[in-house]
Amino acid sequence: MEAIYAFCVGILTTCGFFLVLRGRTFTVVMGLTLLSYAVNLFLFASGRLKLDGAAVLGQSIEYSDPLPQALVLTAIVIGFAMTAFVVILAMRSRADQGNDHVDGHIPVQSTKSRISEKRHS
After folding, report:
1. Residues β-bridged to residue 24
2. pLDDT digit string (tens) for 65-93?
3. pTM tops 0.85, yes or no
4. Taking the C-alpha atoms of 104, 110, 116 and 119 in order, what is their torsion angle to the nearest 10 degrees?
């Protein structure tokens, strides 16, 4: 179970980094969201993965640590606020600059792609 969990956290982290390095603001926002999900899963796993473990002492023989659960709840709220802020920032940037590229400049197309576009049109 731990190996599958670690694999899922690794996949989320890898996809998040890949999307953050893209040139459009929407993919950067999606990448940041995936990275926050990966961090939430990592924080949750830091309290050891247990089945049927109560978060309250005295409710069962085995208990799970409630601190990582509280950290994950806090991280979810902070992640939602951060995502909303970045989306508003991206919308404002698109309105001001007229495009949604991260650096604000539309990349120059190579001459080969221009020639192929002229042939197809």
Report:
1. 101
2. 778 888 889 989 998 999 999 899 888 88
3. no
4. 80
CATH assignment of the domain containing 106: 1.10.287.3510
Domain containing 73 equals 2-120
pLDDT digits (tens, 9 = 90+) for 7-28: 999 999 999 999 999 888 888 8
The span from the CA of 88 to the CA of 112, in Å, is 36
How many folded domains does the chain comprise? 1
Residues 6+ apart with CB under 8 A from 43: 68, 71, 72, 75
61: helix, strand or coil: coil
Q: How far apart are CA 108 and CA 41, in angstroms?
A: 40
The β-bridge partners of 101 are 24
